Amino acid sequence: MRRLFEQYSLFDGLTTDGAAASQKTSARGTPDTPPVSTARKRSRSYDRAILRYVGFYRVVTTHQVIYRFFIFAGMGPGYGFRLVQRLVKQGLLASRPLDRERGAVSRHVLSMTAAGWDAIGLSTPVAKKHAAVQDIEEYRMQLADVMLVRESQGWTLVPEHAVWARLREWGLAPYRGRALNEQDRLIIRRLENMQPIKLGLSLLHHRGTGEVRILLPLRRGRSFRRLIEKLPATLGLFPPPVFELVIAEPPLEDPCRDILRRWGEKLKVKPQIHALNHFRTRAHPLHLGEQLSNIYPAAGVPDPRLLI
């Protein structure tokens, strides 16, 4: 997870629509550049947003791109499919079947090319050899699918370096705006003076309510049991912990829920658990039957292109 969240720093030099500040172009043009049509400007802003999105997760499905930028924004999928196809033809994205044995009906996986990284002003990351690369990619696509839904509900990813600040805010929130007894004051002092907790996991933070959820990965090659056992006992001082399971391997869900229940009994807390279906169960964008309305404004998101 740490390497994944380090990608936040890669986009520090980009403006909110994904274009480098120095590369902004007026619709009227300049003496040295021709005017740019509104349609072309819109296409470019989607190009950069899609490339940043794929670069952040390293691998996503074409369906996830269509849902995130178009379906959930109240648009039809056709324009999105055409944009993705053009990015592939231009060599900015690579596309391959997710399940080759399924042939033409397989979902497709998108990843960045060297030209794609260059288009958003970043150098191509050095690929590290890993025996479980398929498991890691499955997990990243599942995380992308979880965030696809949660972002539209107002949740944001918290990088590991900011986890403690969000945790402490969450822990102190129940004591604000009400009368305090001596026990409350004792807990507040402990939280304010506590050394930062290292969860080894990342969080979701709700931009409206300030709530947090602990992201727990469930995939082959990584022991969720060990991750749970390493959680600090001081979490018992906080409101009942809330977990978001990122279930890349569905058979692991029931054992994980059981271990979390027993962990909660040990700390005398009752953890809440949230989970979404596997990304492979998401309906094809062309099979929805009816167009959705834009669901982002209700979550405080003016435009999905601004999320990453």
Tags for this model:
10 helices; disordered N terminus; 308 residues; Arc Repressor Mutant, subunit A; 5-stranded mixed beta sheet; 2 domains; alpha/beta
Main CATH class of the largest domain: Mainly Alpha
Secondary structure: helix percent: 25-40%
CATH superfamily of the largest domain: Winged helix-like DNA-binding domain superfamily/Winged helix DNA-binding domain
**How do the strands line up in the largest sheet?**
4-5-6-7-8
Q: How many DSSP E strands?
A: 8
Overall mean pLDDT: 84
Largest sheet, if any?
5 strands, mixed
Q: Low-confidence parts, pLDDT < 50 over ≥5 residues? A: 1-34
Radius of gyration computed on alpha carbons: 21 Å
> What is the CATH topology of the largest domain?
Arc Repressor Mutant, subunit A
CATH architecture assignment name of the largest domain = Orthogonal Bundle
Order of helices and strands: HHEHHEEHHEHHEEHEHE
Describe what this molecule looks like in 3D.
The chain has 308 residues and is of the alpha/beta class. The chain has two domains: 2-127, Orthogonal Bundle (Arc Repressor Mutant, subunit A); 155-279, no CATH class. It has ten helices and eight strands. Strand 5 and strand 6 form a beta hairpin.
Task: Sum this structure up briefly.
This protein is of the alpha/beta class. The chain has 10 helices and 8 strands. The protein is globular.
